[in-house]
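FAQ: What does a ligand-bound record look like?

Like this one, built around KG4:
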Amino acid sequence: MLILGIESSCDETAAAVVADGSSLLSNVIASQIDVHTRFGGVVPEIASRKHIEVIIQVIEDALDDAGVTLDDIDGIAGTRGPGLIGSLLVGLSVAKSMAFARGIPFVGVNHIEAHITAIFLTEQRPAFPFVALVVSGGHTNIYQVDGFGSFRILGQTRDDAAGEAFDKGAKMLGLGYPGGIVIDRLSKGGNASYVQFPRSMKGSLDFSFSGLKTALLYYIKKRETPVSDDELPHIAASYQDAIVDVLVDKTLQAAEGLSLPRVVIAGGVAANSRLRELFQERAGKRGVDVFIPPPVLCTDNAAMIATVGYHRLQRGDSDALNMNAISRWPLDCPEGV
Ligand code: KG4
Ligand code: ZN
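The answer part, i.e. the structure of the complex:
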């Protein structure tokens, strides 16, 4: 079964063709980073206009790269939410229109579910049940996953998401946007013990990153001299470690609490090299297997959307064409909030 996936929830316009929910035939991603960089973050109105400009070309490229035509596609999956409403509407409207025109089924997909399901596009597929950590620009959640489409929330952030903590920290350090990847690269030459940043909410499975952000702000402001270029890698590495340390700890704590020796790490922050390293190191010691997709399947893409679409269609489950986008849509809340 060939599914065309379409994703436009934030600042990436993406389309992909996936066979049988597991075999990636194409994965096209048009990033808008260059457009938003000068504003220091994503500008929603500009994002939706850019999606409109490129989405048809992105879909054509995805079909071409896969060596198929629309006649070969069995179903279309589009991101329904959560995300920026104007951006979501572009991809969802195109997905519904194409499904209507071709007379094939349409599935409106939850973006968080898709991040978790991305692991099934790799060779390394976990058995159910497992614990999943979803860490992105908008989410920091831990779930118990019992099967496709079956989730129970175990912990979540009380304030900022981990990706937001990376992006805001990078902005304070004058490193530009998006900050996660810059901090990741810069930290490679740094000493993570240089600054002792706080780790909050120890013992709980919930997260809080606002105190860490404030700690960085005070660290920069209270100094007598500005941060020098030589110090930057050390400060970045210390800040990065404060984020990844709690992510790894709480996820493994959840796995241990449930006696589930499998964890899946998903979402844009899962591309972070220190997070990947620390998970392998600490999980190995505790007898837990860690499953992390390659970085290109961690950040936003449409292959993960197509994979959820496939599993929904396999269960005989598709959506009506009058389905609307929803900006806030927790996984355990079928119609959003
Ligand atoms: O999943 P994603 O692409 O979009 C959302 O659904 O939010 O995640 C984007 C987030 C951004 O905050 C970005 O800074 C972060 O993922 N990110 C990283 C890395 N690559 C992307 N954070 C840390 N290290 C990275 N290598
Ligand atoms: Zn995402």
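Follow-up question: can I read anything off the structure? Yes, for example: The pocket of KG4 (ligand 1) is lined by residues 10, 136-138, 163, 166-167, 178-181, 184, 267-269, 271-272, 299-300 (CB under 6 Å).
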